[in-house]
Amino acid sequence: PPHSLEPISLSSLSLDAQALHNQFDELAAFSDSPAPSVTRVLYTEKDVLARRYVKNLMGIAGLSVREDAIGNIFGRWDGDGPELAAVATGSHIDAIPYSGKYDGVVGVLGAIEAIHVLKRSGFKPRRPLEVILFTSEEPTRFGMSCLGSRLLAGSENLANALKTTTDSKNISFLDAARSAGYAKDDDISSVFLKKGAYSAFVELHIEQGPILEDEGISVGIVTAIAAPASLKVEFEGNGGHAGAVLMPNRNDAGLAAAELALAVEKHVLESGSIDTVGTVGILELHPGAINSIPSKSHIEIDTRDIDEERRNHVIEKIHQSAIKITKTRGVKLSKFSIVNQDPPALSSEAVINAVETATRELNLTSKLMISRAYHDSLFMARLSPMGMIFIPCYKGYSHKPEEFASVEDIANGVKVLALTLAKLSLQ
Ligand code: GLV
Ligand code: MN
Ligand code: MN
Ligand code: MN
C-alpha cells in the first residue's frame, strides 16, 4: 500500500537541534536594534535579508519557493497528490521594536525543520505540504496587523486601504513593497486565495504566556484565538505657552489623551472578566516641547477579549468617554477610528485531534488552551480548518528582549508539528 496507517515510524523522527539553534541566532542578527533585542520591520533592509535567509533554507529543504505580490513566501513539497489541496503551516518573522527572537520565528524555522524531519524519516506526503512565511503579522509599520494572512483570506477592505496607506515617514505601502521587490503591479488582490485552497493550516508558536512553563507541560493545543481590536484617537486643543496660559484657560490635548488612557483601563476592568484586556501602547503629543501645552495628541489603543460582544462593548464605552472628554476639557475629537475589530477564531476539531494524537504518540504532555495573542491563524481560519501548537516560553515573556524558548521545547514542538503535518497530509 502507498501509505501505511502509521504515517511514519516515530523512532525515526530525528531533529537537528543544533542546526536549528544556530538558525535562531543567525536570523536574529538581521535586526535594527542591538542583541539580545530584535527589531525587524516590514520591507526594511533587515527584513529583506531575513527573507532571503529563509528562502535559502526552504531551498535547502527541497521546497519549491514562490512569493506573492506582497511577499508572502510559500515553500512547497508536492506529495503523491499534487492536485490535492495542500496542508499548510507557517508564521511570521517580522519583529516589533525591541522584541525577541522567538515570536513567529519558531513557526517558520520550526516548520522548515519539520519538513527535514519528515524527509529524513522517509515519509512521502499524499497532500502537498506548504510552509508559509506571512508578511507583517505585526502592525508596526503600517498600523494594521496580519497583512499577509488577511489578504490571503481575501480582505477587499485591506486591499483597498493599502492603496493609500503610508507609514510614519509618509512612505506609501506600495512604494515600500516595491523597494523590497514586491508589488510589481498595483493590484494586490492577486494575493487572495479561495476558501478551500488548503485542507488544513497549523501554526507552531511560543505560548507568550506562563501557563505551560508553570504547569510543566510540553505542548499547548489552541482551541480558540481571542478577538483583537485596535483604535486610533486624536484630540486637538489650542496649545499655548506653558507659563503664560493660566489653568482655567487651557484645553490641553495631552491631558485629554491621558484621561482617555485611564478610561480605557477603567472600562476594561468594568467588564468584570479577567479575559478583557486593554493597552495604550502609543501616546504622542504635539509639539512635544516641555514649555508648550500639547495642542494635539494621538493615542493608539489595543483591546481584546475572548468574548467579541464584551470587547465591542468596551470599544463603545471608550468612544463615549472620548466624547465626554471633549466636553469637559474643551478639546476637539479630531479622530476616532477603529483600525480593526476582528472576531475570534475557533480551531477545527480535526486539526485539534491530529495535534492531540501526535502529542500522545510522542509521549508528550499537553493541555487545551486559548490564545490571547493573535496570529496569522486567526485569518487562515477563514480559508481552511485551523489549529495551533504552543510551546512553553521563559516566564511567558514575549514582545521584549528577554523572550526565550529552550531548544528542547522547540524540538518537541517541531516533532509534534512534523507528525501532525504527516497525519493531515494523509487525510
Ligand atoms: C501579535 O503579536 C499580538 O499582538 O498578539
Ligand atoms: Mn508578536
Ligand atoms: Mn507571533
Ligand atoms: Mn502575534
Automatic annotation (TrEMBL):
Subcellular location: Endoplasmic reticulum
GO biological process annotation, one example: allantoin catabolic process
Swiss-Prot/TrEMBL catalytic activity: (S)-ureidoglycolate + H2O + 2 H(+) = glyoxylate + 2 NH4(+) + CO2
GO MF term list: hydrolase activity, acting on carbon-nitrogen (but not peptide) bonds, in linear amidines; metal ion binding; ureidoglycolate hydrolase activity
GO terms for cellular component: endoplasmic reticulum
Cofactor(s) listed in the protein's UniProt record: Co(2+); Ni(2+); Mn(2+)
Domain of life of the native organism: Eukaryota
UniProt keyword GTP-binding, yes or no: no
Alphabetical UniProt keywords: Endoplasmic reticulum, Hydrolase, Manganese, Membrane, Metal-binding, Purine metabolism, Signal, Transmembrane, Transmembrane helix
Pathway noted in the entry: Nitrogen metabolism; (S)-allantoin degradation; glyoxylate from (S)-ureidoglycolate: step 1/1
Stated family: Belongs to the peptidase M20 family.
Protein name (record): Ureidoglycolate hydrolase
